[in-house]
Amino acid sequence: MTNADLSDFRTPGRGHGVLDIFTRRYLLKVLVKKDVTTRYRNSIFGWLWSYAKPAAQFLVYYLVMGRIIGLDRGIDNFPVYLFSGIVVVNLFNESFSNATTSIVSNKALVKKIYLPRELFPVATVIVAFVHFLPQVAILIAVALLTGWIPSMLGLVLAVLGMLLIVLFSTGLGLFFGALNVAFRDAQNFVEIIRTFATWTAPVLYSWTMLADKAPAWLLNIYMSNPLTVAVEFFHQGFWFSTSTGAQANPPTDALLPPPLLPIYAVVAFAIAIGTIIIGQLVFRRFERNFAQDL
Predict the structure, then answer these.
(1) Is there a domain that residue 230 lies in?
(2) Does a structural domain hold residue 6?
(3) Quick check: is 12 in a domain?
(4) Of 20, 172, 251, 259, which sits 20 to 30 A from 13 (CA to CA)?
(5) Whole-model pTM above 0.85?
């Protein structure tokens, strides 16, 4: 009796993880299109809400934190500095939050058919990026009005900042998205992280304020945070050229980029990639019970 060759078969429902999204691009496109088209369905203002939310955030932070509390002291062109940080935090918060709830939100599909489950968090991150683009358009317009001159280095840094946030939020989304299926407390924990996100990056203040008060080890941890590096990349891309620090002979009190930013950037990208690896491992561990837990 001959044994059948089973080398071409594999256990149903098991794929190659995140790598499967490259072979399921059509499904990914369908999920993204569905989320984008249904986001503002039956809404009077539609896509205008993508502009209204960041505009409201900017006004509140600028008036309260900048003008009333006075955190704008020592920061030239504070509105552009502030808004370039807000849009980065918004991208992170929306990507992270939506990816965490993506499996539960699509439980009907998860329970009925098999498709790579990683498609759901990845699709929500892409949708968040699509909604992030109108905010970048506003930022560019405001920066141009305040004297911003685009440079190749600045644009490259801005693109790297976007990539860093997408990688980091995808990794966290895989991790917490899987946990959220088995333990719904994960979603509440994510909300706490989002609350602190604005304050764990130099958005409402400058990095030098922490450098003046924190020990070196704490500053290094803070500056290696992917969110911090992404915000600083956006500052260099859209704000720095409009500040006095960009002059040939900057004043002694000018706000300059962190001197070790390239090193911090390498560490931040390593953290983001490591987060994706850990997130994928945890996702694969919990994935086998998704249908039962949902």
Answers:
(1) yes
(2) no
(3) no
(4) 172
(5) yes
Q: Report the number of distinct structural domains present in the chain.
A: 1
Tens of each residue's pLDDT in the chain, 294 residues: 456 565 555 555 555 566 667 777 777 788 888 777 776 666 656 667 667 777 777 778 777 776 777 666 778 888 889 889 999 999 999 999 999 988 888 777 777 777 778 888 999 999 999 889 888 988 898 889 888 888 999 999 999 999 999 999 999 999 998 888 888 778 888 888 888 888 889 998 889 988 888 899 999 999 999 999 999 999 999 999 888 887 778 888 888 889 999 999 999 999 999 999 999 999 888 888 776 766
Rounded distance between C-alpha atoms, residue 200 and residue 79, angstroms: 19
Range(s) of the domain holding residue 225: 17-36+45-244+254-293
> Is residue 160 domain-resident?
yes
- Cα 254 to chain centroid distance, Å, stands at 29
Secondary structure (3-state) at 276: helix
Q: Please count the residues of the chain.
A: 294
What Cα–Cα distance (Å) separates residue 174 from each residue in 168, 242, 279, 282, 285?
A: 10, 38, 5, 8, 11
